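3.2 Worked example (two chains)
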Amino acid sequence: SRKKTFHTFFHHIAGAHSDELAAASRLEESINFYQTSTPDVAKLFHIDTAAKRPSVVLLKKEEEKLTFYDGEFKASAIADFVSANKLPLVTTLTQETSPSIFGNPIKKQILLFAVASESSKFLPIFKEGAKPFKGKLLFVFVELDNQEVGEPVADYFGITGQETTVHAYTGNEDAKKFFLDGEVSLEAIKDFAEGFLEDKLTPFYKSEPVPEPNDGDVKVVVGKNLDLIVLDESKDVLLDIYAPWCGHCQSLEPTYNKLAKHLRGVDSLVIAKMDGTANEHPHAKSDGYPTILFYPAGKKSFEPITFEGERTVVDMYKFIKKHASIPFKLKR
């Protein structure tokens, strides 16, 4: 039997309200919907028979067994309520729960990353912190030492090692991530969640350490120095976003190095590369590897221009000449 049920106490088991409930049940198929007009049956499901009807309650087997609905009695509103509230206060990420987390109408998530042996210490705090945000944020526990789901998700968030951390994730197309800096305490979790809900947090992006020195023909860009190198308004910048395992990227590397060597004397021009698997930045998004982007000087607030020609020295050189804001000549 299903672990979650939706119970409604009506004056009559017919009419507009009953029709809305039936429509909601078709929109939310993972929950069993029941209706009754018998007070003794309603009492069995913790419904106050003296309260205004229709009275509605969502029952679950988790700690938070009852959730009462006081919204508009419309199918879409009821289905959204059920979808948002059918999960427990904190959901453990597994392959089974993944669709209900990432397919939930509530997109914003707070995630606790911890190894299984630490979960008994941090999960009670995390659950307590989740209570004020029920129906507003999803609270998710990710077991770091779970190879099936924990490790891939931790890698996506740039988490290395087994330290307990808390992150926030917008869960939408911009996929912004945020990091709780400092001790994982109840107050810190609540403050972090509140700041996230009110869009007051600064996004966190994966980054390798800033390389020193960085004076080769091809400048090495990481998440932390992209603003300094790529978004420098005084420079035209060509950026190759690559993946270490990508065969096409490996084939491009000697050609790209040769291009950079030819252009090393042009002070207004920077030829750069970034490992897209280890670094992130909102102004450097790739549609696969390699992705070659050009950032004209003085136009860094605009989207970069994507290179789509043949990956030869000549074609890339012509592309740079065409789009560069600062004209240049090669030194002989």
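3.2.1 Second chain
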Amino acid sequence: MRQAQGFTRRATLAAIACLSAVALPALAQQGEGSGWPRQVVKLIVGYPAGTSPDLVARAISDPLSQRLGQPVIIENRPGAGGNIGVDLVAKARDNHTFGITTNGPLTTAPKLYPNLPYDVKKDIQPLSLTATSPLVLVTGTQVPADNLKDFIAMAKAKPGSVTYGSIGVGSGSHLTMELFANRAGIEALHVPYQGFPAVTSAILGGQIQSGFMAPSGALAQARAGKVKLLGITSPSRSTLAPEVPSIAEAGNMPGFSAELWTAAIAPASMPRPIAQRLSREITEILRLPEVRQRLFEQGWQPVGTAPEGLTNRIAADTKVWNDVITKANVKVN
């Protein structure tokens, strides 16, 4: 009987020890989330001020600051098509740093950059798909093409003579033109820039003829008569720019579709309760009518997903755009 009691006592103590081993780390993680944030929160944007992801970051930073009770400071760290910004987020260890980026650094960069300093699956923690936008094909007013069919005919008449800008090799604006050129049967010369404002300036100045751009950077210029919009990459006309025909329609390219998106990401090292708090706050902010209206006016469709939604989008787009990269033989110098 004593033996049985001793065995029962030992078994109980062992069970308590096992439960403690499981529960204590979980409690510690909860503790890491309580009382957060304890300092200024840094929001890294891997593109210059005034670019599309920067506009999205600025739309959510003030409401987020109010909700967190700490300043949210935007730090623009442009370069390498947004990869520098994502790398800085991946390497942050203060639990008070996250980022806003575009699709390229999360979907196409691993294929384009063999020595990419971060691993999307291992180093990045998805927070939310924040906003989406089709792209518009923009040309300067001096370009002798007033519609998409004329543009394609012009490009075919002198192969390789048409120039276009993008926000970097492997970016959505670059690969969308590669997809378009393949479907249209044309050749075009690529000139990369650091952001859409620089692409716009080059088109206005006549240094390049065209480019696929986010509506946020193109609609105001078009409505002022400074550029022409020949087509939009949504499957049909978009509420963002209802006056612009879809490329599928205007170019007789059934099924043509391409989309730019922005996302909130955190380092994989950020404790899960903190990441969940950030994800939840960002998603709720993107439901606010004033934020939605602000983003819509800038050419963005607010989304706001759970982390799993962004994870799935990264996987799906990685497959689509990697196929484009392979077919177009896109290389980063």
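3.3 Remarks
The two ends are 78 Å apart (CA to CA).
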